[in-house]
């Protein structure tokens, strides 16, 4: 059977010059985006310190002014990335431009894709960036992404960024997104500027999202300058990467549930991306069977049915190839709430073949597999 594939979490790489072209001059001058490059002197000092493994050119580092946009990016990690750079160089180059993005999709058998930021998420959500600059960079990114997505015969779906630094601006930001004809936005799952997703300051925003059929894709990552799960106790990539994606998604759902966002806005749709799906059965079981029955009077206003019922009604989740517990996940939320994503071109998700995708759920019927690989994404993104 020929499989259509909708990549529900595919990334662009933002070229450095796009910020100058799409962000207002005042912001660019006050909070310039630039790169710090490795130097011959730094390499000599590195070799003297760590030996021959340091004899490699380190990738340039993105900065806002003098602030690194990526947190906990140690020298040891930079060295390892430099040694692996060749493996992901071509995919990263392909993600810079829509024409090569589309070519890479065709080579992988992917028909359509929803596009997410790479560096912009660290810039817009940077904890040291003031609200006006965060807003300006979010708006600039969306303008650039809109032009990027004009290519490709509607095969590229833009997912707009919203700055959360100042909640008073969020409805206006949403109106600008709607004027472009877009109905999909992305938010990070973490607290931003001290506010979790269920914070009361966001209530007008959630109302506007529901009223305008806007779909919300939650997408995190490991190296934000912010309060990502794990950063309060770990520094290594191993530990941070283990915590950030699945734990932030669990807490994001919990925040939306506990605050009553899901109860008050039953038409709102949320996708939980790049964390796999195997966390869902355990988390929903715990919420249903241990947390919800404990003191029901304390949650009666905001949670009026089992937590799993809210998830089944309003939430989608992406799966990983060869991920365990998918059948158990399907038993809990149904196969129509599962979507497929590659995370292209990020180096930890470069292996993808349709033959592998067809084996991810060996017990699924052809019709169910078609839903997971394509139709469920259409249902979520509304395309």
Account of the protein in words:
The protein is α/β, with parallel strands linked by helices. The chain is 47% helix and 13% strand. It is built from 17 helices and 12 strands. The strands form 3 sheets. The chain has a 6-stranded parallel sheet. Strands 1-5-6 form a 3-stranded parallel sheet. The chain has a 3-stranded antiparallel sheet with strand order 2-3-4, with no helix packed on it. The radius of gyration is 21 Å and the shape is globular.
Structural class: alpha/beta
Categorize the overall geometry.
globular
For the biggest β-sheet, the strand order reads: 7-8-9-10-11-12
Strands, total number: 12
| Radius of gyration, taken over Cα atoms and rounded to an integer in Å | 21 Å
Question: Can you count the helices?
Answer: 17
Main beta sheet strand tally, sense and closure? 6 strands, parallel
Order of helices and strands: EHHEHEEHHEHHEEHEHEHHEHHHEHEHH
Spatial gap, N to C terminus: 23 Å
Mean pLDDT: 93
Percent range for β-strand residues: 5-15%
Fraction of residues in H or I helices = 40-55%
Low-confidence stretches: none
């Amino acid at each position: 059977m020929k499989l259509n594939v909708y990549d529900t979490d595919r990334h662009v790489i933002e070229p450095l010059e796009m910020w100058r072209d799409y962000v207002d001059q005042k912001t660019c001058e006050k909070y310039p985006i630039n790169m710090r490059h490795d130097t011959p002197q730094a390499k000599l000092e590195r070799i003297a310190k760590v030996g021959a493994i340091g004899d490699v050119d380190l990738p340039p580092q993105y900065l806002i002014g003098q602030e690194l946009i990526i947190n906990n990016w140690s020298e040891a990690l930079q060295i390892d990335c430099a040694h692996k750079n060749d493996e992901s160089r071509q995919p990263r180059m392909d993600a810079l431009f829509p024409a090569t993005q589309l070519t890479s999709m065709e080579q992988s058998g992917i028909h359509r894709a929803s596009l997410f930021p790479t560096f912009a998420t660290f810039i817009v959500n940077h904890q040291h960036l003031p609200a006006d600059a965060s807003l300006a960079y979010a708006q600039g990114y969306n303008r650039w992404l809109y032009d990027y997505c004009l290519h490709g015969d509607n095969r590229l779906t833009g997912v707009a960024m919203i700055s959360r630094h100042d909640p008073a601006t969020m409805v206006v930001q949403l109106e600008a997104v709607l004027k472009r004809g877009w109905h999909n936005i992305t938010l990070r799952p973490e607290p931003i500027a001290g506010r979790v997703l269920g914070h009361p300051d966001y209530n007008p925003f959630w109302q506007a999202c529901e009223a305008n059929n806007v779909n919300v894709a939650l997408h995190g990552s490991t190296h934000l300058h912010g309060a990502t799960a794990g950063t309060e106790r770990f520094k290594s990539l191993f530990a941070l990467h283990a915590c950030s994606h699945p734990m932030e998604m669990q807490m994001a759902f919990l925040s939306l549930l506990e605050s009553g966002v899901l109860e008050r806005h039953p038409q709102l749709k949320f996708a939980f991306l790049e964390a796999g799906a195997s966390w869902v059965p355990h988390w929903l079981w715990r919420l249903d069977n241990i947390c919800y029955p404990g003191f029901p009077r304390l949650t009666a206003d905001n949670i009026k049915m089992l937590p799993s019922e809210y998830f089944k009604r309003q939430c989608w989740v992406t799966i990983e190839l060869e991920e365990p517990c998918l059948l158990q996940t399907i038993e809990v939320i149904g196969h129509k709430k599962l979507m497929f994503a590659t995370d292209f071109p990020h180096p930890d998700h470069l292996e993808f073949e349709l033959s592998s995708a067809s084996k991810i759920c060996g017990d699924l019927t052809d019709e169910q597999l078609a839903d997971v690989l394509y139709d469920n994404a259409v249902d979520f993104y509304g395309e």
